[in-house]
Amino acid sequence: MNLLDPILKIFSFDKEDFYYVKIERNEKCYCNSGKKYKSCHYPKHLKSSKRAVRKINLLTGEETIKVLSIKKIRKDHDLFKTSVISE
Ligand SMILES: [Zn+2]
After folding, report:
1. The predicted structure's pLDDT at residue 65
2. Span from the CA of 34 to the centroid of ligand 1 (angstroms)
3. Which tens digit of pLDDT belongs to each residue from 8-47?
4. 30 alpha carbon to ligand 1 midpoint, in Å?
5. DSSP structure class, residue 75
6. Which residues contact 58 (CB under 8 A, 6 or more apart)?
7. pLDDT (tens digit, 9 = 90+) per residue, 39-70?
8. Residue 18 Cα to ligand 1 middle (Å)
9. Distance 32 CA to ligand 1 centre (A)
10. How far is Cα 79 from Cα 87, in angstroms, rounded to an integer?
C-alpha cells in the first residue's frame, strides 16, 4: 500500500460533492425511449461492460446520467448509494 493513499483518500472525500445511484434494470431507460433499461440500453452496456448510473450533486440535487465502465464503478464503489453491481 502506498503511504500517500490515506491522505489522497481524505483529500478526495473533501472534493467529492456527488454520489452515484445505479439505474436498475426494471427502471425506465434514461434515454426517454419509454422502454425499461433492461430492454433498451442495458444489453448494449452488458456487452461493453458498462452501466448507466445517475450522478447526483449533493448540494443542488442535480442529476446527470453517466455511462461508466464496470471497472470504474468497482473502483468508485464508495460513491454509490446503492449496492455495487455484482454480476
Ligand atoms: Zn435506452
Report:
1. 97
2. 8
3. 665 555 566 899 999 999 999 999 999 999 999 999 999 9
4. 6
5. H
6. 17, 18, 19
7. 999 999 999 999 999 999 998 999 999 999 99
8. 23
9. 7
10. 19
